[in-house]
Amino acid sequence: MSHCNEQVVTGVVNELQREYGKEATLTVSHGKKHDYLGMVLDYSRDGAVIITMFDFISNILKELPLDMDGMYATPAPLHLFAVDENVKVLDETTAQFFYHNVAKLLFL
Fold first, then answer.
1. Is the pLDDT of residue 18 over 80?
2. CA 101 to CA 97: how far, in whole Å?
């Protein structure tokens, strides 16, 4: 939330804390830059917000195995929807890793 009077913001935050912070303290940040769900929201430019996810992307890339690299001309190759019935099924650990990272990329 935003207001020209910082005391108004503090008052509302305190009310929210009393009502919803019983189980755990609410997370509050002040200023022009905020980290939220892997995004950096930057309000330092008048009339604009700049949203970046550079750290989120960097962390995804750090987690990927070294042999997972390469380049493609398009993210949708012709074989995208072709089903290979003879492919080896992933073990549970690798499958969970794959699902986890696909979900991160979908969020990105």
1. yes
2. 6
